[in-house]
Write a structure and sequence with these properties.
Helices cover 28% and strands 24% of the residues. By secondary structure, the chain is α/β, with parallel strands linked by helices. The relative contact order is 0.25.
Length: 206
Amino acid sequence: MTQFYEIHNENPQARLISQAVACVRNGGLIVYPTDSGYALGCHIGDKKALDRIRKIRKLDKSHNFTLVCRDLSELAIFARVDNASFRVLKNHTPGPYTFILRASSEVPNRLQHPKKKTIGIRVPDNAIALALLESLGEPLMSTSLIMPDYEIPLAEPEDIYEVLKGKVDLVINGGFVSDLPTTVVDMLEGYPRVMRQGGGSSEAFE
């Protein structure tokens, strides 16, 4: 059965955040709000939940998953970040950006791009997402909730529940959020290269 929590988007209720985190730790798959649409999230080490995400979104093995982190210090544990890249990340986090970086040894192989050994990393500007991450104490393995044949993430919680009930364990209603996905920025060469334009401005990288 899929649960449906209404969580305040400015002052998230600690009790509901704790219950959502318990769901993740117990192998659950959740839908939660970010500053760039809703996202599917699960525990970083949970292969079964990851496989469920692949099935829902019909993702192939080359898809770059994202680790959603609570701050830059956590981000640096899971990705290799040189000084130039760190300055770029610092200027654009938290915010609607996903940065493609070399994965560190802390990232399970199944989450990395199979050939490039890369990972998407981001810090969201959303109170509910940050409360979840703070309570969890580690990143959420995530991907934008862009369903097959859709071009933008689902943005209305009630619609999400109707589409995904029985397929996920929890849908968090954090109100309407932007229906633009993150702007994806490739940092593999040490400088920013915009791969997908989304909710974050790309002018700062030009």
